[in-house]
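Bench log, entry 3. Co-assembly request; chain sequences pasted below exactly as received.
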Amino acid sequence: MADRRPRGLRDLDELDAVFSALSHNTRRHILQVLHTRKGSMTAGELAACFSHSWPTTTRHLGVLVQAGLITVRPDGRERHYVLNRERLTAALDLWLPSVGLGSYRQPRPDPS
Amino acid sequence: MADRRPRGLRDLDELDAVFSALSHNTRRHILQVLHTRKGSMTAGELAACFSHSWPTTTRHLGVLVQAGLITVRPDGRERHYVLNRERLTAALDLWLPSVGLGSYRQPRPDPS
DNA sequence: GTATTGTTTAGCGAGTTCGCTAAGTGTAGT
DNA sequence: ACTACACTTAGCGAACTCGCTAAACAATAC
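Structure output for the full assembly:
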């Protein structure tokens, strides 16, 4: 069933999901690692990069997926997590102008 | 006494402070309101914009100040809070490149 | 089938966050 | 001095977060 909330509200929720996801250092780090590895890694490879237990990493991945910052592609018994930069730029483009900063793609120098 | 940690570590802490501060909807909203009001407002004006109790808003302001996203200028018995956009752009410039997105001021189109 | 490998789910405990109300601090006005 | 105003600090409770371990699941290998 479709989401029946008006567009604006959904945006706010999605913005909240993105910023909340980015608020934890480990999750930001996951995105970085994903980037250096060409944007796609299995859960195991990712988990091996961190000192946390594997389930802990799994949960962080879940938060990132729900925020739309990564997507998951199952392949046999592996799961490949893929970086979704567009989601990040979309969130920035949506929010930055509201604090006077121009969208990510079209920044204006702040009039200090 | 000065902070004796090496520059890189301090950056990471500051980045964490900024992203943590931005993770709460109310705090993002405070920055927006501050922007629409020319970047400077008293605590009372700010508090009046939200349905929360004044002390709750005060605490949010404290988080934003500590993250460096706003600064405070006492004036008589008022306190003027001032938007600090530079801090935000600095955080973006520091972090975005690490996930393949070009700094805020010099974005490259993501190579989708 | 059974075992093994890759990964998630369940559930717990410590710590943090975020709302509140009540009390405190400091400046200005009379 | 005393009152009023602007604002913060203290402290509480409910909810959430984040780490863990143990158990479950799902796909491949034997």
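Chain B touches chain A through 31 residues (CB under 8 Å). Chain B has one domain: 10-96.
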